[in-house]
Design goal:
The chain is an alpha/beta fold and 301 residues long. It folds into two domains: 142 residues, NAD(P)-binding Rossmann-like Domain (Rossmann fold, 3-Layer(aba) Sandwich), CATH 3.40.50.720; 137 residues, N-(1-d-carboxylethyl)-l-norvaline Dehydrogenase, domain 2 (Orthogonal Bundle). The strands form two sheets. Strands 3-4-5-6-7 form a five-stranded mixed β-sheet, sandwiched between helices. A two-stranded parallel ribbon has the order 1-2. Helix 10 crosses helix 11. Bound molecules: NADPH dihydro-nicotinamide-adenine-dinucleotide phosphate and 1,3-dihydroxyacetonephosphate. The site of NADPH dihydro-nicotinamide-adenine-dinucleotide phosphate has 20 residues, from helix 1. This is Glycerol-3-phosphate dehydrogenase [NAD(P)+]. InterPro entries: 6-PGluconate_DH-like_C_sf, 6PGD_dom2, G3P_DH_NAD-dep, G3P_DH_NAD-dep_C, G3P_DH_NAD-dep_N, NAD(P)-bd_dom_sf. Catalyzes the reduction of the glycolytic intermediate dihydroxyacetone phosphate (DHAP) to sn-glycerol 3-phosphate (G3P), the key precursor for phospholipid synthesis. Its main location: cytoplasm.
């Protein structure tokens, strides 16, 4: 809307709109006048931003009627099928042009109009820039990329590393440990990006280190908060129930561990989070396993 477009916001229950004009998930931010709320999935638009969480994306997609290009904003990997968001879209709607939008973007800060940047990736030449020009504003700076694999992986994997970062702080292991863990997490993601057909260098950008910086340090991150609570000894069930929102890293961890194993890529931090959230090992055990690993050459991706 701030970029000058008339916007339709799809919601399961448009009647849930609050008296102040906001929707319940962001109750402090009344929607701009240019935004109308609808429950129709018949979408005649210049572009669609899909923000449905991974768990529900495929089922919502079945009912969408459109020929507009879709920019996917969810961050994760589907646990059973190991599909990234673009794979899910392509499987259901190979006819649609598609892009991925990712980066360090807490929703409440974007809603408040605070400055932010993100990257849009698409494989079709020119599409990412076209969408970036439609959606970008001086306070929402959009860079473009052709590395759809790297951008999707960055968004999905940072949620898993954020759980590890939160657990490190929650367990009282200190900020040095967190910095080391996030840096080595970045190395894992960079290796995996190359093995999956993306570019390791994308992880130096907004979808990689940018979102890691935000999510692994910002107390607003749901994934970080899950890790923090686990580090403080709470159960995953308690933690997720108290969260009031989705933490995609919980379901994504195991999917990334499996993908990495298939590609022969070592991802010990992602594996540690998988063991933790799947209840296979305690925090003490996974931390000790990480600390006992032999250290080798630093750069090997
Ligand atoms: N929040 C953020 O700062 C950011 C989030 N993302 C990504 O965006 C995605 C969505 O996250 P976010 O909006 O924060 O999650 P929330 O947990 O805050 O909201 C979940 C949303 O999903 C909707 N929903 C729940 N169940 C269904 C269903 N069965 N079918 C369709 N919709 C459903 C909810 O609708 P209802 O309100 O009706 O319950 C709600 O709008 C995630 O992949 C996340 O990683 C990416 C960048 C930033
Ligand atoms: O992706 C996000 C910010 O870029 C939101 O992070 P959380 O899902 O951990 O809250």
């Amino acid at each position: 809307a701030r970029a000058g477009a008339a916007v339709q916001l799809w919601a399961r229950d448009p009647g849930a709109r609050l008296p102040n004009g906001a929707m319940p998930r962001l109750p402090d931010y009344p929607l701009p006048e240019a935004v109308t709320v609808t429950d129709s999935l018949v979408m005649d638009a210049d572009m669609i931003l899909s923000v449905v969480p991974m768990k529900h994306f495929a089922s919502v997609l079945k009912d969408v009627q459109t020929s507009a290009p879709v920019a996917l904003c969810c961050k994760g990997v589907e646990p059973d099928t190991l599909r990234f968001p673009l794979d899910i879209l392509h499987d259901a709607r190979p006819d649609l042009n598609a892009a991925v939008l990712s980066g360090p973007n807490f929703a409440h800060e974007v809603a408040a109009g605070l400055p932010a940047a993100a990257v849009i990736a698409a494989s079709q030449p020119g599409l990412a820039r076209t969408l970036a020009d439609l959606l970008g504003t001086p306070r929402f700076r959009l860079y473009d990329s052709v590395d759809i694999t790297g951008v999707q992986l960055g968004g999905a994997a940072k949620n898993v590393i954020a759980i590890a970062a939160g657990a490190t702080i929650g367990a009282g292991l200190g900020e040095n440990a967190r910095a080391a863990l996030v840096t080595r997490g970045l190395a894992e993601i960079s290796r995996l990006a190359g093995a999956l057909g993306g570019q390791a260098v994308t992880m130096a950008g907004l979808a990689g280190v940018g979102d890691l910086l935000l999510t692994c340090t910002g107390g607003s991150s749901r994934n970080y908060r899950v890790g923090l609570a686990l580090g403080q000894g709470e159960t995953l069930e308690q933690t997720v129930a108290a969260l009031g929102g989705v933490a995609e890293g919980v379901a994504t961890a195991q999917a990334l561990s499996i993908l990495a194993r298939r590609k022969g890529v070592a991802v010990p931090i992602i594996d540690a989070v998988t063991d933790l959230v799947e209840g296979r090992a305690s925090l003490d055990v996974v931390m000790n396993c990480l600390l006992m690993r032999p250290a080798g050459p630093e750069i090997h991706f």
